[in-house]
Amino acid sequence: MSQNYFEETPVPKAYFHFTMPVVFSMVLSLVYNMVDTYFIAQTGNTNLVAGVSLCAPVFTFMIALGDILGLGGSSVISRLFGKQLDGDGKRLSVFCFYGSFLGGIVVAAVLLLLRQPLLLLLGADTETLSYASQYYSCLALGAPFIIFSYAPNNLLRTEGFSSASMAGTVLGSVINMVLDPIFIFSLGMGAAGAAVATVLGNLCADLFFVWFLLTRSRKLSVNPVGFHISRSELCQILAIGLPASVTNFMQSIGIALTNRFLLAYGNDKVAAMGIVMKISMIAVLILVGFAFGIQSLIGYSYGAENFARLQRVLTFSYRFECGTAVLLAAALSLLARPLMGIFVTDQDMIQTGISMLRMQQAGMVFVAIVLVTTCTFQSVGKPWCAFLLSVSRQGVIFAVVISAASWVAGYAGILASQAISDLLTAGLAILLYRRCLLRELRGAPAA
User: Fold this and answer.
1) CA separation for the pair 128, 260 (Å, rounded)
2) For the whole model, what pTM was predicted?
3) Which of 176, 361, 395 is nearest to 287 (CA)?
4) Using one digit for the tens of pLDDT, what is the confidence trace for 412-436?
């Protein structure tokens, strides 16, 4: 990558150069999620849709586990490659690949052993338990393939194979979308069919990644011969991977909490919220792509102590991100009825979903502030500030807000809780930014 983009290119042009590939990847992920939700909703069985929605935290939990060695390993290995320590990078890649798969086996065993209590904890009742159990069981059996896929997906980028990383993701998503109607409807597998399609999609992506590693990669390896890893190296990987996975863990908690509080108002509310959350991802994933796509630009400017350019980058990023959030929120709110109508035909559920979706969008501009600030802290080496924001929006702050809001305003309070949590977390982000970074930037000499 030419340093021109880091130092000389006008900020708007550099911003879009770095962010657009990431946004494109987010859009691909979005298409898969929407199609998957569409086929599940087409069963017309509210309890089946609710049962699958209740298991959403399980899948998010697997993504978070995959990120530990995927993101943590890619960070350490990329730095080793930069120091020309290719042998050490290759050795650690072996650990990340096998560690992810073996960890997936352990997770599968634990999930199956604790299936009944975990399903009840997630909110399954007599009407949704059988559907949730079918989906959960198949997903648990596929945990090794799902968790493993995040290792090569991230590590291939350390060798410059970003196109191959994207190709594997696209392959898995397309196969999943093709298999969904076959397993759900043609084979009559229902909820279990949706999970089987997801697992097979990830398995095909895994096979592609392994094939690519064996035939094209020169710096990464799946050969365990002579492998070893020191305690220091393991700690380096976990020190980065564990905090990076927190956001996904918190998303699982947020979804589970919302479902638990909505259960008192009927399974149709849980089913509607499951669809609404997928629609809301249209805005969230695009914002994530624009926020985190500029990590390298922020990190480079900070490392070079080019604080004048860094402030211009951050100013443009905050303005563009917030403006985009407003436009996306307005569009989704205005199109709430037709968007819900894509997935369900029941008018009561559509009406329920409209109010839910609009309340979710109410805090989207605050989500933009949180995302850019979190990305900035990660990029400039302030992990504790990023960690505080990661555990707040759908974690600690959200748990307090939804408990209080449901007690004060009942159902309406539950719907408003995410927007309130977004507002409070944005306030925390601004406070941390001022205390931990702004003074440093203003106190430094201009570049």
Assistant:
1) 13
2) 0.69
3) 361
4) 999 999 999 999 999 999 999 998 8
Give percent of the chain with pLDDT exceeding 90: 35
| Gap between the terminal Cα atoms of the chain | 22
| Cα angle: 284, vertex 370, 323; to 5 degrees | 65
Residue 289 CA to residue 321 CA, distance in Å, equals 10
Which residues are CB-contacts of 155 (< 8 A; sequence separation ≥ 6)?
A: 70, 73, 74, 77, 93, 96, 97, 220
Name which of 329, 391, 324, 402 is nearest 364 in CA terms. Answer: 329
Per the CB < 8 A criterion, the answer to whether 23 and 290 are in contact is yes
- Torsion sign across C-alpha atoms 366, 367, 371, 377: positive
Which residues touch 337 (CB under 8 Å, ≥6 apart)? 350, 354
